[in-house]
Amino acid sequence: MIQREETSKTSLDISNDQPSAVRESDLRTRLRTFPRDAQSWYSLGAYLRLVGRFNEAEDVLRRAISLNPGPSHFWEELARTLMDLGRIDEAYQIYDSSTRGRSSITKEIQELKQMESSRTHDIDDTSPCISCKDYTYYGCSKGGTCDAIIRWRSRAQHLSIQNRT
Questions:
Q1: With a threshold of 0.70, does the pTM exceed it?
Q2: 159: helix, coil or strand?
């Protein structure tokens, strides 16, 4: 049976009165009875991650995904587990494969790095008002428009016209 992704994700709260050994035992009993229950495998994996048993959690979450690769929260929990294990690159790959149609996190990181490296900090990009001693939070304290801002705006307009042609 393929489960559809629910809007409300199952969250585990280990602060309730049920002891952790009992919770794990209940999940394992359920899985012995229903070994193809992907949601129970996911719940066990999420629980194991919360209690710090990351290697076991990874194996259990991979089992849940092998039974039902559809729900994205299965993939996201596996990615979080891999991050906890220190396998960041693999976690990014898992996250990217689970997004299906959404933007890729590694692609976004690469684009941001590329933008950052290609960015030239040219003085023409910054308003001359920032370095002016008369500039305040509310604008120019002189009350008018100074020559520096007029020259800066006309240069910016001239550059945008050149870039369009």
A1: no
A2: helix
- pLDDT above 70 for 154: yes
Q: Per-domain residue ranges for the chain?
A: 20-107, 118-164
Using DSSP, state whether 40 is helix, strand or coil. helix
If one counts every other C-beta atom within 10 angstroms of the C-beta of residue 31, the result is: 17
Q: Given the structure tokens 């990009």, which residue do they identify?
A: 125
Q: Which two tokens stand for residue 19?
A: 């002891």
Would you state the structure tokens that stand for residue 18, as one six-digit string? Answer: 């049920």
73/101 Cα distance (integer angstroms): 15
Computed over every residue of the chain, the mean pLDDT equals 75
- The pairing of strands 139-140 and 135-136 is antiparallel
CATH superfamily of 20-107: Tetratricopeptide repeat domain (1.25.40.10)
Map tokens 């919360």 to a residue.
50
- Helix (H) / strand (E) element for 20: namely helix 20-33
